């Protein structure tokens, strides 16, 4: 006889692996049927509500409309616009929602995405082809780059554009792909529980894990209206037991038995706990002042000996707990 349940199991295991702009995220165990109930809206939110950047208008000196042509440029303007839409921009100032950027190219020249990098924008698709100018070609180009979500047709903002600019349909979403699979898993002899496996790929404007986290926040915020209206109790995450393996992250860096030079450099940087180093990762550790090559090698080796190789990221749920507990330890010291 099946056990009669009085509450729904809350998933407790979360892990991910990431390579470049792709991530695979696993969450489990879900009660039967709950996997798709959670996975589908997250997928929808990732696609529709992840912020990105796109050109919404352009102006080319000597060109009046998108069906025009420019002397000395191999592509007509319509083809140029199609190629331009393959370029993925990123506004460098996180506080800015819109920038206008200007370019001037003289032929002969093959123009690619990397040629559009400047102080205001970063191109995350540097190898994408845009156009070719011959010896007589000269291109004076202005672009309006804007932050937004999803797809917005040019008809929605054409009348707001500055005079002389040609409006462009804007596809803002930086999420190239998001799919999920649901697998059956065994929990206490019951084979009907589920594991959800997400595959997320972005175009480089945003890290895939950051995109996933932002989508979760956006989705959860949609329920805040119910909490306010019905005065619902906040759902508290289950307390995570770190176990001996991860508890070691809360130990002092003295436990690594580093040479004085390495230890002192970390101490001067305000780093007190092993977990701080693991959370920082190789790149940030390498930027610590007065840490030479030998000291860095020693720190990386000692962390690996302690069971925390920096090539293996901590599970996100463990990472969050370590961050919170180290913060408390520092407040108490």
How would you sum up this structure, described in words?
The protein has 333 residues and is of the alpha+beta class. 31% of the residues lie in helices and 28% in strands. It is built from 9 helices and 14 strands. It has helices spanning 34-49, 77-84, 208-221, 224-230, 243-247, 260-268, 274-286, 293-305, 316-332; strands at 13-19, 22-30, 51-60, 89-91, 98-106, 109-112, 121-123, 129-133, 138-149, 151-152, 166-167, 170-171, 175-187, 190-202. A hairpin with a 2-residue loop joins strand 1 and strand 2 (22-30). 23% of the residues are buried. The model has no long low-confidence stretch (mean pLDDT 89).
What keyword list fits this structure?
333 residues, alpha+beta, Gyrase A, domain 2, RNA Polymerase Alpha Subunit, Chain A, domain 2, DNA polymerase, domain 1, four-stranded antiparallel β-sheet, 31% helix
Quick rundown:
The chain has 333 residues and is an alpha+beta fold. It has 3 domains: 13-50 and 181-203 and 212-230, RNA polymerase, RBP11-like subunit (Gyrase A, domain 2); 52-171, RNA Polymerase Alpha Subunit, Chain A, domain 2, CATH 2.170.120; 243-332, 5' to 3' exonuclease, C-terminal subdomain (DNA polymerase, domain 1), CATH 1.10.150. It has 9 helices and 14 strands.
């Amino acid at each position: 006889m099946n056990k009669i349940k009085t509450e729904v199991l809350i998933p407790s295991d979360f892990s991910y692996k990431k390579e470049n702009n792709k991530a695979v995220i696993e969450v489990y165990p879900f009660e039967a049927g709950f996997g798709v109930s959670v996975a589908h809206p997250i997928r929808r939110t990732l696609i529709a509500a992840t912020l990105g950047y796109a050109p919404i208008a352009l102006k080319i000196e000597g060109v009046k409309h998108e069906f025009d042509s420019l002397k000395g440029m191999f592509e007509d303007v319509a083809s140029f616009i199609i190629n331009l839409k393959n370029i993925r921009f990123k506004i460098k100032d996180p506080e800015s929602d819109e920038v206008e950027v200007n370019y001037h190219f003289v032929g002969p020249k093959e123009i690619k995405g990397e040629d559009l990098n400047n102080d205001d924008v970063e191109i995350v698709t540097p190898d994408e082809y845009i156009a070719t100018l011959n010896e007589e070609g000269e291109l004076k180009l202005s672009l309006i780059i804007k932050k937004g979500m999803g797809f917005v047709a040019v008809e929605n903002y054409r009348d707001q554009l500055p005079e002389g600019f040609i409006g462009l349909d804007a596809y803002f979403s930086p999420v190239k792909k998001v799919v999920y699979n649901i697998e059956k898993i065994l929990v206490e002899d019951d084979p009907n529980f589920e594991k959800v496996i997400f595959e997320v790929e972005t175009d480089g404007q945003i890290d895939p894990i950051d995109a996933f986290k932002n989508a979760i926040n956006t989705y959860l915020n949609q329920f805040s209206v119910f909490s306010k209206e019905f005065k619902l109790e906040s759902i508290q995450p289950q307390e995570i037991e770190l176990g001996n393996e991860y508890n070691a992250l809360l130990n002092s860096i003295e436990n690594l038995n580093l040479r004085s030079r390495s230890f002192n450099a970390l101490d001067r940087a305000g780093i007190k706990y092993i977990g701080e180093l693991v959370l920082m990762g190789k790149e940030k550790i390498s930027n610590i002042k007065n840490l030479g090559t030998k000291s860095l090698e020693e720190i990386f080796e000692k962390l690996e000996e302690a069971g925390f190789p920096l090539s293996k990221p901590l599970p996100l749920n463990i990472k969050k707990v370590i961050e919170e507990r180290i913060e408390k330890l520092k407040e108490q010291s």
